[in-house]
Amino acid sequence: MDRTKSDQLHTEALSHLVGGVNSPVRAFKSVHGNPIYFEKASGAHVTDVDGNVLVDFVQSWGPLIHGHSHPEIIEAVHEKMLNGTSFGAPHLGEIELAKRVKQRFPHMDKVRFVSSGTEAVMSAVRLARGYTGRDMLVKFEGCYHGHVDSLMVSSGSGLATFGIASSPGIPHDTVATTLICPLDDLEAVEYLFNEHGSEIAAVVIEPLPANNGLLVQRPEFLHGLRTLCDQHGALLIFDEVISGFRFQEGSYGDLCGVTPDLTALGKVIGGGLPVGAYGARSEIMEQLSPLGPVYQAGTLSGNPLAMAAGAKTLDLLSKEAYQHMDRLGALLEERLSAVFEKHGHPMRMVRRESLFWLSPGDGTPAVRADQIPKDAATLYADVHRALLDRGYMLAPSAYEIGFISTSHDESHILGMVEAMDDALSTLEW
Prior knowledge:
By secondary structure, the protein is α/β, with parallel strands linked by helices. The chain contains 13 helices and 16 strands. It has two domains: about 5-60 and about 320-395, Aspartate Aminotransferase, domain 1; about 70-315, Aspartate Aminotransferase, domain 2, CATH 3.40.640. The chain has helices at about 5-15, 70-80, 90-105, 115-130, 170-175, 185-195, 220-230, 250-255, 280-285, 305-315, 320-345, 375-390, 410-425; strands at about 40, 45-50, 55, 110-115, 135-140, 155, 160-165, 180, 200-205, 235-240, 260-265, 275-280, 345-350, 355-360, 390-395, 400-405. Helix 6 packs parallel to helix 7. It is globular.
């Protein structure tokens, strides 16, 4: 597959953009290649600047649940654009999207829109601290919540510890109030509450961790977090930036029967445009300015184009749409599992409805970050390159997940299975 023009553009980009990209994973470093430059996209396909057409299972990292350039979403955005691209003032579109969000997340009495998932989590954390009058947070190793300073932490030595900054530029004092636990370990969380319960403002978790593989948690673990928060007066924050709207039930929390105090949303909610949101019951949300003392604002919050894209995206998420994606996901899981077994390849597919992860290791699926095999990146890089050469685009990282959209059909699934079968017949591991 010729990528001459992509390589040329990347060389030029290196002179103007840091690493040639605006988000690190796009650099293709972990799969030992150069990034591909896209020119256009439609449905399940992307076309690069060299004219290569790829079946896309990245879908802009999750927002495009209806695929690229869905005509009804494009029309909705275009119609709004004719009336102005940004008002910096209230408008009907904000109300319309908020009503749709509340229908799918009934524990939310009020919603606040922001411009990214990172901003949604950051604001939810500030609100939780303001509401409780406490400073400490509990987060989990293997969960990513955007580049929020207080949550960009990794564990120290021990199972339940104070966090240490995972990036230069984050002051020690910023993460000194963040406590780290392993996933799927309720005893570790209970220990932290016993030690610091009166100081903990919130427990923050992806109920379906999907930024370090797809680490499916037991509902009992999430129920246990709910109980501990209730016992100690802390808030439970679900980061559903990835999992939100991916399930017919609306939220992954609802699927598991666990209601958080605060939920952060992103990706799908904007239909491909920059939108994040967070919401909770009125008692909590009314602590926000202009009603309460907790300040949060944004120039482009509630942007009319983004609100229109989000509203149309949610309108198109019918029962049939969810059934279609789940059916395709089940087919992919069944057929890929057979291919891995046929070739004796140490990889398996982990799936929840339209979200999937090609997980290294053919044993019990990982539920914690420390259970992911050390050779995951090497094993995945070979598979990624082989599939790319055969016309299938997966995330350029062993730890990122794949997304099935309503624009995919059975031919895309079976084509990827055939490509994987062919690839594994040529690879060594």
